[in-house]
Amino acid sequence: MDSIQRLALGSIVVGIVVLALKAAAYLLTGSVALYSDAAESVVNVAASIAVFVAVRVASAPPDRDHPYGHQKAEYVSAVLEGVLIVAAAGAILNEAWGAFLHPREIDLTPLGLGANILASVINAAWGLLLLRRGKAIRSPAIKADGAHLMTDVVSSIGVLIGLGLALAFRQPWLDPAIACAVAINVLWSGARLVRSSLGGLMDEAASPETQTLIRQTIAKQAEGAIEAHDLRTRHAGRLTFVDFHLVVAGDMRVAEAHEICDRIERALHAEDADMLVTIHIEPEDKAEHSGIVVL
After folding, report:
1. DSSP designation for 182
2. Domains of the chain
3. Which of 15, 146, 161, 255 is least crowded, fewest Cβ atoms below 10 Å from its Cβ?
4. Is the pLDDT of residue 140 over 80?
5. Which of 167, 188, 163, 164 is nearest to 176 (CA)?
6. Is residue 158 helix, strand or coil?
7. pLDDT tens digit string along 188-220?
C-alpha cells in the first residue's frame, strides 16, 4: 500500500470518528444546525471510501486495455465527491425547512458543543495534512478530499458562532437559518470541486507556469535542432503528458536526432519525474518558424 492509499484509508477512519462526534452533538442538543454539520460528515465518510477505491485503481500499472494508465480514476472520485456534497446540501435544506415550519427548542449542552468542537479540530488537522500531501504528490483525489474537509471546518465554525447568537438573543429561527447558510456553502464547494475535476477528465492543459517551464527547458536543451512547435499538454492524475514536434536538419542522422530527444526528455524529467514526453521528429522543410526557438 503506497502513501496515497494510506492517506485515503486514514481519511475513512478520521471521517468515521468525526461523524460519531457530530452525531452525538446533534443528539445531545437537538440543533438542526448541528444536524447539518453531521450530514456533511456522512458525505465525508462516503467520499473517503470513494477516494480510497479510486486511488487503488489509479495505482494500477498500464495494461493492454489502458496503455496510458488508470490515473483518471482519481478525477472520477472527485466528481463523485462533488455530487455527494450536493446531495448533502439537499438533505440539510430539507431538515432546515422542517425546522422553520415547526420550530424546536435547542439545548446547547457543554458536552454536545464540546463534541462538535473536538470533531472540527480533528477535521482541520487532517484536512490541512491532506492538502499539503496532496499537493506534494499531485493527487487530485487527495487534494479534493482535503479541500472538502476544510470547507466542513469553515461550516462548523459558522454553525457554532450562529448557535451562540441564537442562544444569546433567544431566537430559535436562527438555528435553521444557520443550517441553510451551511447548505449554500456546501453547494458552492461542491460546484467548485466538480468544475476542477471535470477539467482533468476533459484533458485540460497544464498550468501556464508548467507550460512556460516546458518551453524554456526545450529551448535550452534542444541544441542541434532548428525549432519545436505544436506543443500540447494534458493532465491525468499525477501525470503530465507532453508532446510536440521537433524540427531538425533533413540530413541529420537518426542517432543524432534521437540523442537530442533523449536530452530534452532527461531535462524535463529532472523538472518533473511524472512527465510523459512524446516527441515527433520532422525535417527542416516542415519548420513553421514559430513556437519554441532553440537557444
Report:
1. H
2. 3-201 (1.20.1510.10), 208-293 (3.30.70.1350)
3. 255
4. no
5. 163
6. helix
7. 777 776 776 777 677 788 889 999 999 999 999
- β-pairing verdict for 292-293 and 227-236: antiparallel
Burial 28-44 (b: 16+ CB within 10 A, else e): bbbbbbbbbbbbbbbbb
**The pLDDT of residue 1 is above 70:** no
Distance CA 53, CA 81 (A): 12
> Amino acid letter at 2?
D
- Is this structure's pTM higher than 0.90? no
CA angle 55, 49, 272 (to 5 degrees): 25
Q: How many CB atoms lie within 10 A of CB 262?
A: 12
| CA angle (251, 279, 242) in 5-degree steps | 160
Q: Which three cell numbers stand for residue 39?
A: 450530514
SS3 label, residue 282: strand
What residue has cell string 438542526? 32
Give me the residues paired with residue 293 across strands: 227
Taking only the tens place, the pLDDT of each residue in 84-102 is 777 777 777 777 787 777 7
